[in-house]
Design goal:
Number of helices: 2
Number of strands: 0
Largest sheet: none
Structural class: mainly alpha
Distance between the termini: 58 Å
CATH architecture of the domain at 24-79: Orthogonal Bundle
Shape: elongated
Length: 90
């Protein structure tokens, strides 16, 4: 009887697609797409884990983007003028 081999995915479950979105809108649209796919219940377990991990990364990106904009608004309110905000952690 010949030995059978299993083909492994080229991407392990530990790998994450860390490609940064261009902007908040792109990240949010991708996040919505991931949520819709996961809610459909049609994804296999490994694909769901990968999608969850990417979704979590996108969620953090969106939250950081919103926090940066909120900081800009705070600066605007404090000084009554718009000042360019430069995040400390970039």
């Amino acid at each position: 009887m010949p030995a059978t081999t299993t083909k492994k995915s080229s991407k392990s479950t530990a790998e994450v697609d860390v490609q940064l979105p261009k902007n908040f809108e792109q990240a949010y649209a991708e996040l919505e797409s991931i949520v819709a796919q996961m809610e459909s219940g049609q994804m296999q377990l490994e694909a769901s884990l990968t999608a969850y991990t990417r979704g979590n990364f996108l969620l953090q990106f969106c939250q950081k983007s919103l926090a940066d904009v909120e900081q800009q608004v705070q600066i605007l309110n404090d000084k009554n003028q718009l000042v360019t905000f430069k995040p400390e952690h970039d």
